[in-house]
Each structure stands twice: as C-alpha cells, then as structure tokens.
Design brief:
The protein has 16 helices and 18 strands. The chain is an alpha/beta fold. The chain has two domains: about 450 residues, Alpha-Beta Barrel (TIM Barrel); about 30 residues, no CATH class. The strands form five sheets. The chain has a seven-stranded parallel sheet. Strands 1-3-2 form a three-stranded antiparallel sheet. Strand 6 and strand 7 form a beta hairpin. The longest helix is centred in the middle third of the chain and has 22 residues. The chain is globular and about 80 Å long.
C-alpha cells in the first residue's frame, strides 16, 4: 500500500472564512506521505525503549539493534485506529482547541525568565509567577488554552510540571497542554486531573488536559518521550506529539525535505501509540518548524520561510484528517517593539490563512526565553484584531435590499451617523482595548500614550481585579494533599 485511505476518517478541511491559503495540493500531500513511508521502511526509527520495540517487532517491523524499520501496513493501520481528541475545560464544557477548522491560540504559564510587571526587572521564574500568569491568561478572551512546563527556580526538578499544573488548575478553567519532565511526573498529573474531574472515567469522557511528547531529534525517540507516549496511550490521556526541525540544522535545508523527515517521525510515533492502545486519542499533526540562522546559530522562530512551511504542515494535517498544530505567535526579539508586533501579527494572520487549529506560545519573547505579561496582552489584542479582519462579511439578498432602501431614502452625499441603521449596527465593528485610536490633534496632544505603558497598566489591573473561578473547596484540599505527598516522597 502506498497511499493513505482517504475514507479512513472525516475530512477536517477548514471553513472558507478560516482558510484561504493552500501550499500543498492532494498529489503533493500524497507524495510526502509515500516518501515518509519509504524513509520509515528503509531508514527506520530509533527506539531505545524495549516495550516500544517489542510492540513494533511483534506487529511485523524489522529490528536492527535500537533502530526499527516500520512497514507501510503498520502506518496505514495506525491511521485507521487513531481517535482524534477533543478538548474540554475543567468545568466539563466543550472547548475550542482541536475543533476542525477553528483557529485557536495557547500560551505558556511559565518559562525560564520573567519581566516583573511591577519592578520591570528581569528575573528568574518562581512558583508564584505561575499563579500570576494563570490569572492573566484566564482573563484573556482570545487565549484558548494554557501550556504548562514547570520552570520555577523555587520548585524541585522532580516536581516541576506537576506543581505547575496544580497551580494552573487553581487559577484558570481553560484546557491545559502539559510538558511533563518524566513518566513519574505524568502519573502525578493524572492523579491531579482525576481528582478535579471526579474520576478516571469522567476525565476520559471530557478531558481538559493533553500531554505533549517531544523527542530530542527526528527519527530518534528517547526514553523520555516514548515513556510519556506509552503512558498516555495506556491511560487514554490525549497526546500531542511533535518534533522540532530547524531547516539546515537538524533537518534538510528545504521545506520539502523537512516535511518528509518530520512526517516520517510523526507517523512512527503514531504507530507506537496505536499499537499500545488502538483508538487512544491523538491530538494533531505538526512540528515546530524553525530556520537555523547561519550567522548566529539561533533557531529562528520567526523567519519568514517558516510561514510557508507551516502552511504546508496544515495542508498535510488536513489531508490526514487531523487538526494542525504549529505556528508560534512569538517574537525573536526580547523587547516589546515594532518587531514584536510585526512578527506576532504575521504568524497570527498566517494561522487564519492556512487554517492551523492550534497555535502555541502566544506572547513569548526572545525566542521563547522570556515571559512578559504585557506581551501576552499584546498577543490577545492582535488575535482579536485578526479575527475581526478575517471574518467574512454577511452579504445576503435581504441585506442588499435593505441597503438599497436605505440609500434611496438618504439620497446623494448623505450622512448616516444619525440613522437608526447605524445605531443598530455600529457595535458590530471591533473596538481596540489597547491600540491607540483616539482623536489626535498635532501639536496639542503630543504623540499619545506609550503602548508599553498601556500594556503594563492593563497587566496590573488584571492581576489586581480579575477573579478566576475557584475549584470546589474539597477538590482544592485534595490537590493540597497530593502536593504534600509529592514533597514527602522526595524527603524519603
């Protein structure tokens, strides 16, 4: 078999208002798929975890040490059994991420460094900052899910991700994408979400957390990412698997070559996941494509070539019948300036044009090394602006007839400010919360207020006034008990 069966799952083609750009046609997507099968069958995938190797070999793969060559029939079987995941919030209500054709955005609740919103000083991230960031992200209407890694300087390494998830669950109801440090951390997190959901069965029915599995290299699984993958399959935790190719660094210096490599890598992990538990939920297709800047060796998140690559990834994902994960609404610069706005807007608009269902890292600065609450707020404003821009206008025969009658009544060179129609519809337009749109009188008003000052003021107001929906008291108590048990385990 040398092509994917297009009847294996329903189409996830984005709606016209969401997707206007196509990079790959059907023949090109099929060619990338076929080339990926060739790579898997003849180059193989590095599988250091014995359980994963045994699953593959027992199913007909060929083992050569820790490298396993995977036949096409296993890929086709995995594509048929994989169950697309859905996201809920912690209240059990359906959430937007992973909805076919729905462009959504997530942002991190933590990273290594933070720009303090009160002192404006750069410092290391702490556990309490996770509280502040979760409160902020909970308040932002255009941030649809929260990413949790665990990078607090005052939390033990062995407890980073589970403490971060506990903090996040307390201060937002939004869905969570977690990056556990190890399998033990994931098992602790599973205890957490089961406590919040009420039971394992309740969480499986309405999952509000997904787990990311990211390998160290392409076609090169590690103990870390494969153990997470297997545990997610076993416990039916929705899994988001993705690789991190950088053109010219750890992948070919071409979009075509990188697509083949990353796709073969994704398919290999899908096969292992589905062999462990056929039908276990799998979230999306999509790597985080970057370009290696040969002048600085920086892996650029915002190089323009990545936009076209992400468009191709989205087309490939939709060809497979999966949502697309990718694009990082981020900036390579550590400052909030014109470059930040340009790079964030370019990625945001491209997400809508190409139909990427899950955009991540919205508002991170300095190639994901710096967190600034103000940048999250800027990202939220840019998303709102872009969403308004890409909406298809309502143009119906009724509205056209209404317009003709209105114009006839008003006559030539008319004003519509006082017209009842304007009074009824002027709120249909988007109005900025932060972007400057005041009346400007040259020479009298100076040059308006500084955007950074407005962003900082908005951040402080949110932190001081926004009240996230609390967990039920008994659930919060159970989480406290779990946290105590983690720390006690470390002291033994």
């Amino acid at each position: 078999m040398n092509r994917v069966d297009q009847t294996m799952r329903p189409s996830l083609t984005s709606s016209p208002s969401m997707s206007k750009l196509r990079v790959l046609d059907t023949d090109q997507a099929r060619a990338i798929h076929d080339a990926s099968l060739d790579v898997l069958e003849h180059t193989g995938y590095h599988v250091p975890v014995e359980e994963a190797r045994k699953l593959l070999v027992d199913a007909g793969a060929v083992e050569n040490g820790e490298r396993v060559c995977i036949p096409a029939v296993l890929v086709e079987q995995a594509l048929k059994t994989a169950r697309p995941a859905r996201f809920f919030d912690r209240r059990g209500e359906i959430a937007a991420p992973l909805t076919p054709g729905k462009v959504t955005f997530g942002s991190m609740v933590d990273t290594l460094n933070i720009l303090d919103p009160y002192t404006r000083a750069l410092r290391r991230f702490t556990r309490d900052d996770q509280r502040l960031c979760a409160i902020l992200l909970d308040s932002l209407a255009n941030i649809d899910y929260v990413q949790v890694i665990g990078q607090s300087i005052d939390v033990p390494d062995a407890l980073q991700s589970q403490v971060a998830v506990a903090q996040t669950l307390r201060y937002t109801t939004k869905p969570i994408l977690v990056y556990p440090y190890d399998r033990a951390g994931l098992l602790d997190i599973i205890d957490l979400v089961h406590a919040v959901a009420g039971s394992q069965a309740a969480f499986r029915e309405k999952p509000f957390l997904a787990c990311a599995s990211v390998p160290p290299g392409l076609l090169y699984g590690s103990d870390y990412n494969l153990e997470l993958l297997l545990a997610c399959a076993d416990y039916e935790i929705p899994l988001l698997y993705y690789s991190t190719p950088a053109l010219g660094a750890n992948s070919p210096c071409s979009v075509a070559g990188t697509l083949v490599l990353m796709n073969a890598d994704w398919l290999a992990n899908l096969v292992i996941h589905q062999l462990k538990r056929p039908g276990a939920p799998f979230c999306a297709v999509g790597p985080t494509v970057q370009v290696m800047d040969m002048r600085t060796t920086l892996w650029s998140y915002c190089a323009p070539e990545t936009l076209m690559a992400y468009g191709a990834v989205a087309d490939l994902a939709h060809w497979y019948g999966f949502p697309a994960f990718g694009l990082e609404m981020i900036s390579d610069t550590p400052a909030i300036d014109a470059q930040t706005g340009m790079e964030m807007f370019a990625q945001c608009l491209w997400a809508y044009l190409s139909g990427v269902e899950m955009v991540h890292n919205a508002g991170l600065l300095g190639s994901a090394k710096l967190y600034a609450l103000e940048a999250n707020i800027l990202a939220d404003e840019i998303i709102a602006y872009t969403r308004a821009a890409v909406q298809e206008p309502s143009i119906t025969s009724v509205e056209i007839e209404e317009a003709v009658a209105l114009i006839k009544e008003a006559g030539p060179n008319a004003e519509y400010v006082t017209n009842e129609h304007t009074y009824t519809h002027f709120r249909d337009f988007w109005y900025p919360k932060l972007f400057y749109r005041d009346r400007f009188v040259p020479g009298a008003d100076g040059f308006g207020t500084d955007l950074n000052a407005r962003l900082n003021g908005r951040a402080r107001t949110i932190l001081e006034q926004h009240q996230p929906e609390p967990l039920p008291r008994e659930v919060d108590f159970e989480i406290e008990q779990l946290e105590r048990s983690w720390y006690q385990r470390l002291s033994v």
